[in-house]
Amino acid sequence: MSDVLELGWEEWLALPALGLPAIKAKVDTGARTSALHAEVIETFGAPDSPKVRFLIQPDPDRPKLEIICTAPVVDRRDITSSNGQTELRYVIATEMQIGGVRRTIEITLTNRETMSYRMLLGRSAFGENTVVSPDRSFLQPKLSYDLYKEIKPPKPSTRPLRIALLTREPDNYSSKRLLEAARARGHVIDAINTSRCYMKIEARAPEVHYDGKTLPFYDAVIPRIGASMTSYGMAVLRQFQGTGAWCLNPPEAIGASRDKLLAHQLLSQAGIAMPVTAFAHSPKDTKDLVGLAGSGPVVLKLLESTQGRGVVLAETKKAAESLVDAFRGLDANFLVQEFVKEAAGADVRCLVIGGRVVAAMKRQAQDGEFRSNLHRGGKATAITLSPAEKRTAVAAAKRLGLNIAGVDILQSNKGPVVLEVNSSPGLEGIEAATDTDVAGKVIRLIEQRTRTLGRKR
Question: pTM for the complete prediction?
């Protein structure tokens, strides 16, 4: 019969629509669905007509040969492999050419880098008039991986991103600027109230739900999590990570920055200079605790203070001891820290994005106030940092694992010392003081980390 397709247990075939002119496949009559090797799988497009982009190395012996493929998604289903493991896979439909036969087949995408064959051809792809001879191979014309020599290396593949902005304050300056900057660069961005997220936690398909609906896949998440939502916000962020989203600041880095004791310990371990700091929880020896931070004045800080709240200056050692006793009576966790007098009520906010300082301002406290926070009436002006200040700021953000950080530095007689590292720095003051498009730089960093398809991601 001339229309019978004869196959051996291994055959060469092509998938033209995917840009694959030659691929060696194992023919498996025991498998219903065909499978293709895929790495760095990314979905994109409208929710009602999603597409998938993935990376494939068609030749197992040439790992540097990489092809980027794109196809519509027709389904996502559980597939059980020959070893009994079940995996949730994307399913695509594409044209297959084998010998003189062309037909559209369904293929599931999975990582087959440990397999000898980059493709498995299941029986649903055979057609009615197909005969498989399990003791023979290459009954159809042989192809060659040399066909890929004519294919130019792929250029970085980019697309509009879908971004989630986690915030309970979508109308504040920082949120508005991030929304504007993302949309100006052609991305889809949704402001999501962290407290209204809830989670479906399972091994194969973790989901984040919001207002009775499952949230779509997001390429990236910008966390703007308030101090009161740190614990739950970190849990929501971990759930987004489980769906494959890239988080601008990962949850563990946010947790480290919010815990002032942990942050100081991590900075200390990295050899990053900071004011001498002492910590205690209900200490018995108040005098010794205060003495560890110096003879005075000293600063007392609640571990979870923000925007200058919970920060008190004790002018004398006796005043410091009284404050320690008061905090102890409240059963509060706090730090006692050396007061850097020569800073003269000023600090420097360094905005670090992607491992470099993109803007810096000097904040000067108003008369009679030692806290320079803008929320406390401090005044901000642009400043040019010294190389040592830049190195210190970058090192502090890196040690805590933050891709964006507001690093507060004091200019002491011993050089720059880190006062605090903020994982959700406000943008209004520093954009106004430096005339820098910080929000735009945040979006460009997200593009660099998520928009290009490649193994490094």
Answer: 0.66
What per-residue confidence (pLDDT) applies to 456?
42
Measure the CA–CA gap between 428 and 406, rounded to whole angstroms. 13
Q: Which of 420, 431, 50 is nearest to 217 (CA)?
A: 50
Strands 246-247 and 101-110: unpaired
Residue type, 304: E
Q: Which domain holds residue 168?
A: 162-256
Predicted local confidence at residue 159, as pLDDT: 65
Question: Of 339, 373, 390, which marks where a domain is finished?
Answer: 339
Does 354 fall in a domain? yes
pLDDT number for residue 247: 95
Q: Identify the sign of the CA torsion 165, 171, 177, 183.
A: positive
The letter for the amino acid at 328 is R
270 in any annotated domain: no
Q: 2, 9, 108, 23: which is closest to 65 by C-alpha?
A: 23
Structure tokens at 29: 């009559």
The residue with tokens 């979870």 is 304
For residues 132 and 456, give the distance between their C-alpha atoms in angstroms, rounded to a whole number. 40
CA distance 400 to 330: 29
pLDDT recorded at residue 457: 40
CATH number for 242: 3.40.50.20
For residue 258, the number of C-alpha atoms closer than 13 Å in the C-beta half-sphere is 19
- Structure confidence at residue 304 (pLDDT): 63
**Final residue of a domain: which of 227, 256, 285?**
256
* Beta bridge partners of residue 11, listed in sequence order: 25
pLDDT by 10-residue block (mean), the chain, 457 residues: 81 95 94 91 75 89 87 89 79 94 94 90 89 94 90 63 94 97 90 95 84 89 94 96 91 93 92 86 68 78 64 79 73 77 85 97 75 63 96 97 96 90 96 97 93 50
The C-alpha torsion from 407 through 409 and 414 to 415, rounded to 10°, is: 70
- Cβ count near 258 (within 10 Å): 22
Tokens encoding 429: 């003051």
CA dist 207 and 197 (Å) reads 10
Torsion of CA 168, 170, 175, 176, to 10 degrees: -170
> Per the structure block, which two tokens stand in for 155?
């250029």
Q: Cα 159–163–167 angle (5° rounding)?
A: 165
Of 391, 352, 373, nearest to 429 by C-alpha is 373
Structure tokens at 43: 């979905």
- Domain harbouring 333, CATH code: 3.30.1490.20
* 402 close to 393: Cβ distance less than 8 angstroms: no
